[in-house]
Structure formats: C-alpha cells, structure tokens
Design goal:
With 57 residues, the protein is of the alpha+beta class. The protein has one domain (7-56). It contains two helices and two strands, in the order E-H-E-H. The protein has helices spanning 19-27, 48-56; strands at 7-11, 35-39. The protein has a two-stranded parallel sheet. Strand 1, helix 1 (19-27) and strand 2 (35-39) form a beta-alpha-beta unit. The two termini are 17 Å apart.
Length: 57
C-alpha cells in the first residue's frame, strides 16, 4: 500500500511568490495533484484549499 503525501502552500499577498514552496514540495516527492494552495491572508481559516485538504485528511 502506497503512502500518499499531501502539501499545503499559502501566500498572503500578491507580491509573494509560491514557486519556492512548490519546488520544496516536489523535492519531497509530493505529487502536484496533492498540493493545495491558497493566496490569501493567514488569519482567515476559511481558505478554500485549506478546508478541502482538511476534509480529505
């Protein structure tokens, strides 16, 4: 049985770039389909991708 890894990326401003975080996830062999990303403030826990990931886990 294969263990599936998930990743979560959040950047809080339009000026921030998620590329470095995305590359780090790929280095950890996390499949792109299993990486969830939100581009919004961290103070709001109603982030769409974060909530989706919580339902999967």
């Amino acid at each position: 049985m294969e263990v599936r890894k998930f990743g979560y990326i959040r950047v809080s401003s339009k000026d921030q770039n998620e590329i470095r975080q995305l590359e780090a996830m790929k280095e950890k062999e996390i499949d792109e389909r299993d990486i969830f990303m939100d581009k919004q403030s961290g103070k709001d826990s109603k982030r769409v991708q974060y909530q989706l990931l919580k339902r999967i886990l």
